[in-house]
Amino acid sequence: MRKRGARTKPRRGLHSAIVRGIVRTNRECNADAIARPMRNLFVLLRSGEVLEHVATGVACMHLRDVDASRKDLDPTVPIAPAIRGWVECWQQLDPALPSGNLLKLADCLDAWEGITEELTDAAHEEFETQVRAFPGFSAEHVKRAIKSAMIAVELEKIQEAAA
């Protein structure tokens, strides 16, 4: 038992509420970084800048965030598979989050159908809802979801090639 007036050791480190705030802010920054290419996609869609890949004929976007020093990376990315990969990842993280408009947008891009402003706005709102939910997930949970989504995409490619 401590004597009255006795000095106690000062606590070291940050208060747990401050640490939780720092961790949440870090996750929000990570969410913004992860979301940047998709946000660029929505800007391009609104401006009508969908590119057709010369070799494959699929709807593509030019990634502005690709490291120019990496010559092995193709800066054009097919849009529909990117959207479907995003949705697949979120189905792993939280299947309750909406993704129907994102999938509809991907289908329209695959078929080169007209994309309405309403569909683009609805898909963008679903996307932003998902991004806002991101800081609530642990890094380990996100890593598992990304791996699962990548495996699902690769399996789909193998099945399509075999068909």
In brief, what are we looking at here?
The chain is built from 5 helices and 3 strands, in the order αβββαααα.
Overview of the structural elements:
There is one protein chain. With 163 residues, the chain is mainly alpha-helical. It is built from 5 helices and 3 strands. The chain has a 3-stranded antiparallel beta sheet with strand order 1-2-3. α2 packs across α5. The radius of gyration is 22 Å and the shape is globular. The model has no long low-confidence stretch (mean pLDDT 79).
Helix content: 55-70%
Distance between the termini: 76 Å
Shape: globular
* Uncertain residue segments: none
Order of helices and strands: HEEEHHHH
Strand content: 5-15%
What assembly state would you assign to the polypeptide chains in this entry?
single chain
The largest beta-sheet arranges its strands as 1-2-3
- Alpha-beta classification: mainly alpha
Quantity of strands, as a count: 3
Most strands sheet = 3 strands, antiparallel
How confident overall, as mean pLDDT? 79
Number of helices: 5
* Rg: 22 Å
